[in-house]
Design brief:
The chain is of the alpha+beta class and 448 residues long. It is built from nine helices and six strands; from the N terminus they run H-E-H-H-E-E-H-H-E-H-H-E-E-H-H. Helix 4 runs antiparallel to helix 9 (395-429).
């Protein structure tokens, strides 16, 4: 038994010494590392860049003319036999050479009435991509925050179990002394030994839980699983959140809702784009030509042309097999579907906020109860330990008080963690996840 206690003491000392050499990690730094390293965030940012490039390509295709140039040069060498109307005698030319050189620049531009609508639609799609990237960022921030506080919670539970083990050690020492002095039976000593081993098992199991919690946090920060660091040992609860403020912010800042609204706008623009395509299309073209031909045979031994020419046409679609009408009808149905989806998301968002807020309020109300319950259990355990030391109470009474204290401590720190977790969720739903602490919001990089 002494050997086990000594090993546990040495282990605790080594852990403390190692922790002193570890780097301190607060929540703000953890989030900063996550936003810099998390691959999902990097993918989201690159997707925004890709969408911005698509928008620029679309604008170029719609507003800028196509300009093509061609340069052609050819040679030939032939035996030519020619017969003319005014000269019946054939004319034979051997090795007649001909050369042709052509340079051409052609400009083509077609103006479609739906051009500006398409540009708006591409802009909306770019905004959707940026909002989707912000959703990834906010989810990453919420995930890191929750994982960080989960690690703090598990560390607090470890301390609770360690205190419980110390009480079990005190009880075991008392039971051993009483047994050795003949004041108690061996059964009480063995029972104390079993309870101590049980508490030691819980402590060792909790150490494994802490290790896995560290791995989970490192994964979100895109760090090696075995990266070690120290975290703050307390969870601070913010000022009470107000339901009306959360709901108002959600309908202006929630990125998923903004995405749904943008998607509804895209569906409307698609229908408007199809309707506008009924209007005439204007096509313009212009050419610059520089053509030189030389030939040793024929009347024309050299021909050179240089100059500009241009023209245009107006095209109106008169009938397309009712395909356009069907596409417009489908676009209108899609707009209705997206409108219903936006309304449904608003209802879901209200419900999610209300559910989270109910849980948040309940845990805040329970916190005061758990504090009082912990103080009562702590005082009861101190009295039970003293009574057990004096030999005026049984081991069952002491163990019962010890278990009650362990339960009260766990319920208290769990209640605090639940409040913090609901704070994170409510701020995420309301679009204000970045204001849970003093760090600045993450900006999606854009091209100038």
């Amino acid at each position: 038994m002494k050997r086990i206690t000594l090993l546990l003491l040495l282990s605790s000392i080594s852990i403390c010494l190692f922790a002193q050499s570890e780097e301190s990690l607060d929540l703000e730094k953890a989030i900063q590392l996550g936003l810099e390293n998390n691959l999902q965030v990097k993918i989201a940012v690159e997707t925004v860049t890709l969408r911005q490039g698509d928008e620029k390509i679309g604008v170029g295709d719609l507003l800028l003319p196509q300009l093509n140039t061609t340069y052609l040069r050819s040679f030939s060498k032939e035996d030519v036999t020619q017969k003319f109307v005014n000269d019946p005698e054939p004319r034979q030319i051997n090795n007649a050479k001909s050369r042709n050189e052509n340079f051409n620049i052609a400009a083509i531009y077609g103006f479609r009435p739906e051009t500006f609508i398409v540009m708006k639609r591409l802009g909306q799609l770019t905004e959707i991509s940026e909002l989707e990237a912000k959703v990834v960022v906010e989810n990453t921030v919420a995930g890191i925050s929750s994982a960080y506080y989960r690690l703090v919670l598990e560390l607090q539970r470890y301390e609770v179990l360690k205190n419980t083990l110390e009480l079990s050690q005190s009880r075991l020492d008392i039971a051993r002394a009483q047994y050795e002095l003949g004041g108690a039976g061996k059964r009480d000593f063995l029972t104390a030994q079993v309870d101590y081993n049980s508490d030691l098992t819980l402590l060792l199991t909790q150490d494994q839980i802490i290790q896995n919690s560290r791995v989970n946090l490192n994964e979100l920060m895109a760090l090696d699983p075995d990266t070690r660091f120290t975290v703050k040992d307390t969870i601070l609860i913010g000022d009470p959140l107000l339901l009306i403020d959360l709901q108002e912010n959600a309908f202006t800042e929630n990125k998923d809702l903004l995405i749904a609204q943008r998607a509804e706008n895209v569906a409307f623009l698609q229908m408007k784009e199809l309707r506008t395509s009924r209007l005439p299309v204007l096509n313009l073209n212009g050419n610059y030509v520089n053509n030189t031909s030389n030939s040793d045979a024929g009347f024309l031994i050299q021909n050179q042309r240089q100059g500009f020419n241009g023209g245009g046409n107006i095209t109106i679609n008169l009938f397309s097999g009712l395909t356009l009408n069907r596409r417009i009808q489908n676009a209108k149905v899609q707009q209705n579907i997206q409108s219903f989806a936006t309304d449904q998301f608003e209802i879901q968002l209200k419900s999610d906020i209300q559910r989270s807020y109910n849980t948040y309020q309940t845990n805040r109300n329970l916190l005061e109860v758990e504090k009082k319950n912990y103080q009562t259990a702590k005082e009861s355990t101190e009295i039970a330990l003293e009574r057990f030391r004096l030999g005026i109470s049984s081991y069952l009474e002491f163990r019962d008080a010890q278990v009650n204290l362990l339960t009260a401590q766990n319920r208290l720190i769990t209640s605090i963690f639940n409040i913090k977790e609901q704070e994170i969720e409510l701020r995420r739903l309301s679009g204000n996840i970045f204001f849970q602490n003093s760090f600045a919001p993450f900006e999606i990089p854009t091209e100038n």
